[in-house]
Hints:
Blueprint: H1 5-21, H2 23-33, H3 38-55, H4 63-77, H5 82-96, H6 104-122, H7 132-147, H8 152-168, H9 193-209
Amino acid sequence: MTLDVAWAVDWVRRSAQTVIEHRDELIELDRQIGDGDHGENMTRGFTAVVAKLDALEAPLADIGEVLKLVATTLMSTVGGAAGPLYGTAYLRAAKATGVPELDSQGVVALLEAALEGIVARGKATTGEKTMVDAWTPATEAAVAAADSGASPADVLSAAADAAHEGAEATIPLVATKGRASYLGERSAGHLDPGARSTELILRAAAQAAQ
Ligand code: ADP
Ligand code: MG
């Protein structure tokens, strides 16, 4: 089994749907340790992405083109830290997926490229209470699943499960990057909003692959 451009489009549409459904939760999480705009930022960005998909006159040729559209749209419509971070993630992922179909190792390449983009842009490592704490275990779980012969859908499910664990594990952490770091020790006890949105987006990828 492989994933094609229809999967990528479905992933993006499902991402928009889940981000919109969890808009208030993401706002509340960001209100606790940031400025409360993450749910609004992500909703604005993914709503713009779907509008662009709907307005396309010809279908996009490959997965990379879909991810590039997401990247450029998020970069121009999502403010704050998350816009450039997710934008860079999708741009790097697009460069890793200029192919018609992805097998399990192709899915790993996509996730690794996205994580590299986030780290290149934001310079965070694990344990700093950011989206990196969801992306890193997700990518590691994807590598392990692909190496053991899992299908692309199962690789994405493993990644989404690990992103969930990673996001929950941000709760006790003290933030040392991003706006939450201004709170110092008071950032502990709250789930990082970007780790939560990462989990939602990776779950959408897995569901689109089922
Ligand atoms: P802002 O912090 O500018 O208001 P958002 O609220 O949209 O932007 O996004 C906040 C999220 O961005 C955080 O929850 C965190 O996951 C992520 N983030 C912030 N800084 C970094 C960084 N340097 N590296 C990785 N992720 C980061
Ligand atoms: Mg914010």
